[in-house]
Amino acid sequence: MKRFVRLRKIISLCLAAFVLALAAGESAYASELPYDSYNYDYREYIHFTPAPYVPAGTVKGTDLTWNGEPIGRFVTPQDLCKDANGSIYIADTGNNRIVVLDRNMTKVLNVITTFDNNGTEDSFKQPYGVAVSEKNLIYVADSQNNRVVVLSQDGKLVQIVANPQSESLEEGYVFVPLKVVVDYADRVYVIAQNMFEGIMVFESNGTFSSFFGTIEVEISLWEKFWKRLASKEERAKQALFIPTEFTGIDIDPDGFVYASNIDPKGVQGVRRLNPRGEDVIKKGENKNVGGDLWTGGTTEYAGPSQFTDVVYRGNGIYSCLDRKRGRIFTYDHEGNLLYIFGGLGTQVGTFSMPVAVEDIGGMLVVLDATRGEIILFSETEYGRLINEAVSLRYDGDEAEAVALWQRVLELDENNELANTGIGKAYLTAGDYVQAMKYLKLGMSRDHYSVAYRRYRNAMLTQNASYFLTGILLLIVAVTVVKKIRKKKKGGALDA
């Protein structure tokens, strides 16, 4: 007996040592990263997760050369994008130029500072945004020159979009473009400074056509009351405090526009706009696509997230960049929050002033305006598994995604999305018992209700004959009992 107790103690000590070793390993791994990776569970509690992406290096202008000469550091760059070949375009705002890099971001392909404008040398003045069309035309939001400049790949002027004219524009309106994208029909979508009516849309010939995706401002009863009492001058002052509605923009191959915005409530920081300008984004079960949950207090992190840019990554996946906390939030086509990572700081992999995000060959890259550099992030196994599983589900291959979700659960046993994904696959396959098990773990109330109803209906169908037989026997039994009682009653009367 004593030997058994001693052996049990030894085993317990070994197990404890093993657990501590694992914990130390996890702590060591976590300490290598300058930020936390996490998500929110159904109860809106923070759930720490493995890192979906890890720092993979930086790209600085000081490390690059053009025609044998260093191009120098990027100065307050504000935007970047890629073309169909993977080449990278940087709006190097403070240097008044567009820098073009190869897909590996190690070689400079072009530096555009000037261009010929009808025989006159022209140049940029604080180019704030850049985009490349399907026809490989470069669109530059030349903000302080009050125009959008359209160039060919070799830097030749194709078109200038400027001085929009419309009765819907206020008299004396000054066009200051900040961000730009182009759809398959060469329509140009522009986020402009001090433009609260929505995104400006220009036809392929450069004429202004309409506003797009206008956000209706919700006014409280108190604000309405105060507005009635305020003078004309006071109402004019109030308008100055209205934030810029949209901050970043991207477009998917089907022509849906993704636009980030500053939401004071922290509920919806991104919109998915159909060709009619209607927001058709899905918000998931928690009805929130606004980044972090509201943080109280008076620190610089207090309040909601502030999305400054958005990138569509394919298969319904899109990522939003939070400038307040320096984090990247990634969602799927159903509005589920997939993962969160990033942070502000001075370490490699953190940001000082993040302004733009892009997906380049499976890597996520962030442009930092203050540091004047591009920070690269490569996907981990955890991030890859989630991305691939969501992509399969987007294509309708729920069953194919099961193995990926199961591996996700091995890395993150509390991942509700993985449990839901497996549960939905069982639901599609008709295994309602297993479906209910995983959907309950995934806290997916809607799909669990569907699984339960189908299970109940299946049970009723399978056992219908037994139910009918039971009912028939009950009827017969009641009838027989009634007859017996009637006979007994009649016999008693005769006596």
Q: Tell me the CATH superfamily of the domain at 52-216 and 244-382.
A: TolB, C-terminal domain
CATH topology of the domain at 52-216 and 244-382: Neuraminidase
The CATH architecture category of the domain at 52-216 and 244-382 equals 6 Propeller
Q: Please, how many helices?
A: 9
Dominant shape: elongated
Radius of gyration: 31 Å
Q: Please provide the count of β strands.
A: 29
- Side-by-side strand order of the widest sheet: 3-29-28-27
End-to-end span in angstroms?
81 Å
Described by strand count, sense and barrel closure, the largest sheet is:
4 strands, antiparallel
Estimate the mean pLDDT confidence: 86
Strand content: 25-35%
Uncertain spans, ≥5 residues at pLDDT below 50? 1-31, 236-244
Q: What is the highest CATH level, the class of the domain at 52-216 and 244-382?
A: Mainly Beta
Please state the structural category.
alpha+beta
How much helicity do the residues have? Answer: 25-40%
Describe the protein.
With about 500 residues, the chain is α+β, with helices and mostly antiparallel strands. The protein has a domain at about 50-215 and about 245-380: TolB, C-terminal domain (Neuraminidase, 6 Propeller). The protein is built from 9 helices and 29 strands. The strands form 9 sheets. A 4-stranded antiparallel sheet has the order 3-29-28-27. Strands 6-7-8-9 form a 4-stranded antiparallel sheet, with no helix packed on it. A hairpin with a 5-residue loop joins strand 18 (about 200) and strand 19 (about 210). Helix 4 (about 380-395) runs antiparallel to helix 5 (about 400-410). The longest helix has about 30 residues, at about 465-495. The chain is elongated and about 125 Å long. Residues about 1-30 and about 235-245 have low confidence and may be disordered.
